[in-house]
Amino acid sequence: MTPAILEDKMKEFLEDLLKDTTLKNQNGDYVPINVFLGDIPPKNIMSDIFPYVFLKTLGGEDEIEKSTTELKIVIGTTSTSGKNDSMEDKLLENQTAHRDLLHMIQKIRSKILKVRVIGGFPFQFPFKYKFLEEDINPLFIAVLNVNFGMVQPEFEMNY
Q1: Which of 137, 151, 121, 100 is nearest to 55 (CA)?
Q2: Rounded to whole angstroms, how far apart are CA atoms 157 and 136?
Q3: pLDDT in tens, 65-103
Q4: Which pairs count as long-range contacts for 80-89, CB under 8 Å and 24+ apart, including other chains?
Q5: Which of 40, 72, 79, 141 is close enough to 97 for a disulfide, judged by CB 3.0 to 4.6 Å?
Q6: Rounded to 5 degrees, what are φ and ψ at 3?
Q7: Is the Cβ–Cβ distance between 111 and 42 less than 8 Å?
C-alpha cells in the first residue's frame, strides 16, 4: 500500500463519484469532469481542461504509532461569460461557476466522510479545503487537503 496506489484508488473513487456529473466548459457546453493525476497545468492551457479534478500526493509523515499521506485535490470550474455579455449576465455566470465549485466540494467531502476508507486507505482528520485567493476569473479553483493512513513496515530487530 503505497502513495501511488492511493492516488490510483482516489482517482477511481472520484471518477465513479463524478461519472454522472457534468459542468460547463469554456464554450458553455456541458461536459463530464476530467480527473487527472499529477500537477496543475500552466495557466495558458488551464481553460481547455475545465471542469477538472487534479490529484497529487503532497507528502507523508511517519510517527511511532501511525503513518499518513497527504493528498491535494484541486477542483476547477469555469464561467462562460463573454466580453459582450451584460454585467448582470457576467455576475450570474460567475455565481453559477462559484456555486458549481461549492457543490463539487460538498459532493467529494460528503462521500469521503461517509465511506471513510478508500481502496483500503483509511481517511484521517482533519479534512481541509480552501479557495484560491488570487482572482483568476472566469476560472474558479478550490484546493482540498485530505490525509489517509498508510501501512507501516514492521519493525525488525536485527542487531
Answers
A1: 121
A2: 54
A3: 899 999 999 999 987 765 566 767 666 767 788 889 999
A4: 80/24, 80/25, 80/26, 80/27, 80/28, 80/138, 81/138
A5: 79
A6: -60, -35
A7: no
